[in-house]
């Protein structure tokens, strides 16, 4: 009964934070005066949308398959990247969010929620580190997308992606290398947490691929 009550509380909490994330994004969309294409080209928005989906599904269904665990790990990593990059590089930059509560929700609250949820309730199985590094394909694809779209739209989502702002493509490439290394370390960290949880006493290890 205690276990069941705990599961219900976790599901309710996931659904509540998903609702908070939805409210933040809706508020940001309605407040934006720029292009919606630009708005949805922020990594913050894209990663939060994925996190919201994960929280909703986790709250309603709570799958325990390997594929779902892998998606949860990806969403967790993307939100950790969002939180850390924002804190390190973008806290005082213009990132398209004018409301403090929306800013805090998308850059601080949801990243912490996703990480805590992963630490406490990770349905991870023992996967090699190479599989976890596959999570980085999405951020790298986003980086390429931003550089290709930037000259076309005459707009870059973040200052360090803008060659005109950061000091040329050489400086952008340097940022890319540094961020790729840092994100790789984050991916390893998320993977390590999952492996630790998979090996914790009393944990049920999921083997289904569905």
What's the short story on this structure?
With 210 residues, the chain is mainly α.
What this model shows, in words?
- With 210 residues, the protein is mostly helical.
- It has one domain.
- It is built from nine helices and no strands.
- The chain has helices spanning 2-31, 36-39, 43-60, 66-90, 100-121, 129-133, 137-153, 163-166, 169-198.
- Helix 3 packs antiparallel against helix 4 (66-90).
- The longest helix is centred in the N-terminal third of the chain and has 30 residues, at 2-31.
- The protein is globular, with a radius of gyration of 18 Å.
- Mean pLDDT is 85; it is low at 1-5 and 201-210.
Number of helices: 9
Shape: globular
Class based on secondary structure composition and strand pairing: mainly alpha
Order of helices and strands: HHHHHHHHH
Helix content: over 70%
Unreliable stretches (pLDDT < 50, length at least 5) are 1-5, 201-210
Terminal CA distance reads 28 Å
State the main characteristics.
9 helices; disordered C terminus; disordered N terminus; mainly alpha; globular; 210 residues
Topology:
Blueprint: H1 2-31, H2 36-39, H3 43-60, H4 66-90, H5 100-121, H6 129-133, H7 137-153, H8 163-166, H9 169-198
Helix pairs in contact: 1-3, 1-5, 3-4, 3-5, 4-5, 4-9, 5-9
């Amino acid at each position: 009964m205690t276990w069941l009550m705990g599961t219900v509380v976790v599901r309710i909490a996931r659904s509540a934070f998903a609702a908070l994330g939805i409210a933040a994004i809706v508020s940001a969309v309605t407040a934006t005066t720029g292009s919606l294409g630009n708005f949805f080209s922020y990594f913050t928005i894209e990663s939060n949308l994925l996190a919201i989906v994960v929280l909703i599904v986790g709250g309603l269904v709570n799958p325990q398959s390997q594929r779902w665990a892998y998606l949860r790990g990806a969403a967790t990593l993307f939100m950790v990247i969002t939180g850390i990059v924002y804190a390190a590089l973008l806290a005082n930059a213009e990132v398209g969010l004018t409301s403090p509560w929306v800013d805090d929700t998308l850059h601080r609250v949801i990243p912490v929620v996703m990480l805590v949820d992963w630490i406490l309730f990770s349905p991870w199985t023992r996967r090699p580190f190479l599989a976890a590094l596959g999570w980085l394909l999405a951020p790298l694809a986003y980086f390429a997308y931003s550089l290709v779209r930037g000259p076309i739209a005459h707009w870059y989502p973040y200052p360090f992606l803008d060659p005109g702002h950061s000091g040329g493509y050489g400086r952008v490439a340097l940022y890319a290398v540094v961020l790729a290394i840092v994100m790789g370390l984050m991916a390893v960290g998320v993977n390590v947490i999952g492996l630790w949880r998979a090996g914790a006493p009393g944990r049920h290890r999921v083997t289904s691929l569905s």
